[in-house]
Batch of 3 targets.
Target 1
Amino acid sequence: MPEAKIELFHYWRSSCSWRVRWALALKGIAYKSHPINLLKNEQSDLSYLKVNPSGQVPCIVYGDNALSESLAIIEWLEELNPEPALLPKDAWRRAEIRSFCTMISSGIQPIANLRVIGHYSTDAEQKAEWNRHFIDEGLIPVETMLRKYSGNFSFGDDITLADLFLIPQIYNAHRFKVDMSRFPLAQQVYERALKTAACDEAAPHNQPGATV
Ligand SMILES: N[C@@H](CCC(=O)N[C@@H](CS)C(=O)NCC(=O)O)C(=O)O
């Protein structure tokens, strides 16, 4: 367990924040919550930029230090509290899981980020169509990987890092009305994961400020 208390800056509906909240819940690590309202542009407040110059969530503060980027945060949590393990012992399988996560964290999520779609259009339906298009396209290789690796969850029958990245992305796919009948394995894993306690605890509807 960490000696200092972890502080988490996050937004209830942010998929990247959900990844970190889920890892914290799985590893039983308590944290102090600092909601940052992205719709009120609080991520651009000077006070927050002093914590995280990238002006994005999530970010954690631990003692005198701050750490951004969900993958780096989760891998640090994994080293701090190795159980339950989010990555398997086999080095090649770990690399495959990281590859899967990166398809989502680099290939899908950034294209649908608020600052990207806000620059593209101010029209709500145009923005939704943009998200729908890129999430749909990005899920094609994800579903192909699931065909090879999935069991009850993305990689086999245990929750791994891969699920922490997949499930929040599928939540957003539903939000933007992606046709999930095209991605049956992703949908099955999503439904199963939502029933697990740690995933639910970290889910958007259980966060401060949630409006759904
Ligand atoms: N690569 C970063 C991405 C962080 C990110 O894009 N966060 C979004 C919410 S999911 C955000 O803060 N968006 C605010 C904005 O676009 O201004 C991570 O994995 O933590």
Note: Residues 91-198 form a domain with the Glutathione S-transferase Yfyf (Class Pi); Chain A, domain 2 fold (CATH 1.20.1050.10).
Target 2
Amino acid sequence: MKREFCGLFGIYNNPEAAHMTYLGLYAQQHRGQESAGIVTWDAGKQFIREQKGMGLVADVFNERHLQKELKGDIAVGHVRYSTTGASLIRNAQPFLVSFGDLQLAIAHNGNLSNSAVLRAELEHAGTIFQTTMDTEIIVHLIARHMSKDGMEIEDAVAAACRRVEGAFSLLILANDKLIALKDPNGFRPLAFGRMGESYVFASETCAFDLLEAEFLRPVEPGEMVIIDREGLRSKRYCEPNGRSHCIFELIYFARPDSDVFGQNVYQCRKAMGAALARECPVDADFVMPFPDSGNYASVGYAQESGLPLELCMIRNHYVGRTFIKPSQGERDFSTNMKLNPVRSMVEGKSILVVEDSIVRGTTIRTRIKKLRDLGAREIHMRVSCPPIKYGCYYGIDFPTRSQLIAAQHSVDEIAKMIGIDSLHYLSIEGLLSSVQNPGDFCLACFDGKYPVAPCLGVDKECLEQIKGMKP
Ligand code: SF4
């Protein structure tokens, strides 16, 4: 599974705003490794400064950027993996535009589910898009509400966000104003905190821990928090639409030391492992995870079942995203390069492997084969989430249904395909018993019940309607 999507960080009223944002992004690197960006409001020169680049936070920013160029005491930062829009520098965020006296930078985590229609509407009205990102739609809507309807920035942001649908946690820097906002379903996390005299926002609280900032509360679904020279205020820009927090943040994406949606990720993962042990015990010699994804659920499984936990799949911590492969031969070294089992531990043993999810099944198949090759007697697998059968329209990069192994095959067929003796997925009930406020979560990738109907494209009828609209 591609694990990256996006991470946000924002800070108001800090003399080292750029540096704090750099650290806040560093702590959230796991949320996006494709590009990184920081913008600051330079009050002296009255303009927004920016630095963006492809790659990791440590590669994109240097001492000079942080000390000399990114001046200002308000900053917004973003790490990105593209869920919509190609992997290009012009798609790196925060996305910055000028509009009259206003300079506006926007950082987005999530995915708009009605972007195709809105984009067609805006293009029909003469808008020229610079990027392929759905985030740019929000910017153009804001500009239109300001120019056509004469709205002030706060009202224009609110009006624009009432038109877009899907998942959006946003940080917006509008000259010297910082706006944080969450969609009415609250799909993605956004935490609000305080650090001395400064206010901070982050996708995950692990960023606050690094900065020793105090977590105050999450930004609520449908809420807009504005901080400017007049102080801090909060508004409801639209009615919340129930709560549909992405349960995959707890299963896989967020860092285990973060609290998201009011709960600690580590503890949720452990509870999922314990629920798995109750649902489907197995008589094995020991429990082991495929690191790092299965680590925390395997601790829960081992504690609940009383089986020993062994960490005998060894991870190479120095593997980058790519390495130079030999030009001759068909062998794929990438799986072996990342993980290697301890032969003397697996030989002749009955092993219970705990994984957090199976998407395509291809990587797992290779890892299981390796255990077999080293002489494992039996291999059982327990997965700490239900089968993923449907795509995600809210910012997680699952492949199409035709590539989702659980959408195409039964559990028994999957067990045969990946070469294991038994397979069990955590039930939806078991998953919900492992989290607090179980009614507040999106489960659409398991049950196909989408909390916000996805618009999959612009059909002919819709296009005719758009063409009939007054630009
Ligand atoms: S469909 Fe799945 S991955 Fe997407 S938001 Fe819902 S729970 Fe998260």
Note: The mean pLDDT is 92.
Target 3
Amino acid sequence: MDEEKDQDNFRTYTGRSTLQRPLYLIYILLAVSYLLIVIGFAVTLSKATTLSSQLSETYNKIKNNPSGHDLHLFPCGSDTRQWEYFNGKCYYFSLQAVPWQQAKTKCEEQHAKLAVIDGFPKQNFIQTRTRNERFWIGLHDLHTEGEWKWLDGSDYRTGFKYWKQGEPNDYQRRDEDCGQVWINGEWNDYTCNSNSFYVCERPMPSTPLTSKGK
Ligand SMILES: [Ca+2]
Ligand SMILES: [Ca+2]
């Protein structure tokens, strides 16, 4: 009898043990899994928050300085790619020939002025892009015959000059009161109501724009 009782107790003991151990392990595994999920979620949430804050910061930078992010690619602004950069300024070479006064107005409408040529570097830059065509520049003697003036107020008398030989000449006594770069780049005075292409000039977008020429 005692032997049978001991065997029953043993079965009961081993039976309870084989049932309880796996359940205990499952609870631990579930707890660990839950913990890992919570940690993973927290890490993902933290990364998403950081990314969102970085995106927001980048958006604000672009919003406050629209052309800043690709200023190195398009110094004159990504939305104005027809403007060419040279030595700290932006230049527009027109595709349309108009009278001088109209050219002046068209430049002013783009917060620019007709180009003022103050030395050989700018002269070379402009004449390589105007070759074989006439382009108005910001030079005139409209007020007093023979008294040439630059639109930006630069001193003409002491400044750089690049007139073609024999110019300015008021050719055949016509009123040639507006300055242009001739087909070889040298300067010529010409009748202001004639049609010519024109060169506008303005500061880079990152610097304050002058709204009107003088
Ligand atoms: Ca003249
Ligand atoms: Ca002339």
Note: Residues 207-214 have pLDDT under 50 and may be disordered.
